[in-house]
Design brief:
The protein is mainly alpha-helical. It is built from ten helices and no strands. About 70% of the residues lie in helices and about 0% in strands.
Length: about 190
């Protein structure tokens, strides 16, 4: 099944948009319901490839539905994979919407916020790693203090409560922290 998912994802660019929407996307919806975590991870991995080859409405109605169902699973590796591809999906979503400023990112914001509040360090660090890129994909009106709170809480959690983190995570937290700092300042705003 994993091989089939990989093939459908990698070959989706060769099919017409309608073929992808009528055949591949429904297959991915069905396969994403499989109980095997590795199958779900592979479905998640190919979603950005498939999203590039379908319409904006298909992303909005079907790809997001698959992503939402995957994010509601409790598999740690799957949640990390969802976090890793989230920005890719949002980028394709905006490209398909032709960067319309009225297009809402509400579904993606709720997914991201769900991940930052999960009590698992791997998922939270994965979300922290994409914080800067994720903020850059949002409109100014969609950015709120949640991102600043998250940014400071994970740094506080690491530097002041080291009990939950291993020492080798130092560099894996330090680099994203420095990388994300300009995006966090953007959230805070010029006035403050």
């Amino acid at each position: 099944l994993i091989l089939i998912v990989k093939m459908m994802g990698s070959l989706s660019y060769k099919f017409e948009k309608d073929d992808n929407e009528q055949f591949i996307v429904p297959q991915m919806m069905m396969i994403s319901q499989n109980k095997n975590e590795n199958v779900k991870i592979e479905v998640c991995s190919v979603l950005p490839l498939i999203a590039k080859n379908v319409s904006f409405d298909c992303i909005k109605d079907k790809i997001n539905k698959i992503l939402s169902s995957l994010i509601n699973e409790r598999y740690i590796k799957l949640m990390v994979k969802v976090t890793e591809i989230l920005c890719d999906i949002v980028t394709v979503y905006h490209e398909k919407a032709m960067y319309d400023p009225n297009v809402s990112n509400e579904v993606y914001i709720s997914m991201y916020k769900k991940m930052i509040y999960i009590n698992n360090k791997e998922i939270r660090l994965s979300a922290f790693n994409i914080l800067g890129k994720f903020i850059s994909l949002l409109s100014y009106d969609e950015i709120d203090s949640t991102y600043i709170t998250y940014y400071t809480s994970i740094i506080d959690e690491y530097y002041f409560n080291k009990k939950d983190f291993k020492l080798e995570l130092d560099m894996s937290l330090l680099y994203p922290s420095a990388y994300n700092f300009p995006a966090v300042l953007f959230c805070y705003g010029k006035a403050n």
